[in-house]
User: Fold these one by one.
Assistant:
Number 1:
Amino acid sequence: MKTAARPSPAGPIALAAALLTALLVLVAPLPASAHDSLIASSPEADSTVDTLPDELTLTFSAKLIDGEGATEVVVTDPSGASATDGAATVDGAIVTQPLVDGGVAGQYHVIWKIVSSDGHPTSGEFDFTVANASTDEPSAAPTASPTTEPDDATATTSPSTAAPSPDETAPSGEDSSATTWIWILSIAGVLVAAAVAVLAFALKGRGSGSEDAADGDSDESTER
């Protein structure tokens, strides 16, 4: 008597494991591809501009995560010196980096680092070229230096005109104080002289009164 062979349960399990593995292989790269990417910049990568602009702007594919140290932009000039002026700012998906004034001509290198909307850091770099150096700013320096010379001249003349005024006013103050003391001493002298005269007159009157009394006593004694 023949018996029918039963199917082994290992077949469906192996099939399910294979499907799960394929799903993981297909889904795993998705988070990496979701990182925000740079879609535009000004100046553009590998472009040539007339002079160095006031700022560099980077536009990304989604709103970035902003925070301390999350966004960094480094721009160097042809000599390798920094061409940035302050920290970069983030507004949604746009990063703005101020640049220095008076940039030199040559190739500039940009390195950027941001935090994507999915929380993963992303970085990149590119170059752009400046055709002409910015010479407008240095030309203002020579015009500023002559303006300081008239200020020095006026400063030297102002003390010379102001110096005689204290010398002229000093004698008048001394004369007025001396005159005041002369008047005070004169009035005091007059008062002292008047007091002496009044005292002398009083003493003279008292002396004449005592002599009259003595004469009256002598006359009475002779009559007796």
Note: Residues 64 and 117 are 5 Å apart (CA to CA).
Number 2:
Amino acid sequence: MNRRELVKTVAAHGDLDAKQVDATLRSFTEVVTAVVAKGEPVNISGFAKFAKIQRPARMGRNPGTGEAIRIKASKKARITPLKGFKDAVMTPSLAPKLARGVWSPSGGASAAKAASASKAPAKKAAPEKKAAPAKKSASAKKAVAKKG
């Protein structure tokens, strides 16, 4: 599911305007990104934790030569799914139920597009080309040559 499909699905599920949902989603991502960039974690209980982590410098080994190398300190973004989300993903019966027709696992909006495309008038099929006659094998040619 991409962003556009997510906006349409949330709007349909919550009976909201798609533009409002898009603006809210955009604001949400901007706020979470800005807060985490400053080093403050963001927890959405039952869903996920967004955090910036500091990895200290450490010693490692070059796998090709076995030589000891120094790995410099770095900063990483970490998104950790929380218990409620993991439980719902691992046990689909615990997942929230969406309103009927809001989203289908077979493709969501893509399936709706395919269904509407099938209602369009069918295009004429291109005329089929006739297959070239099969060539005789080398042994069949020899048999014909011996008879003649």
Note: The radius of gyration is 30 Å.
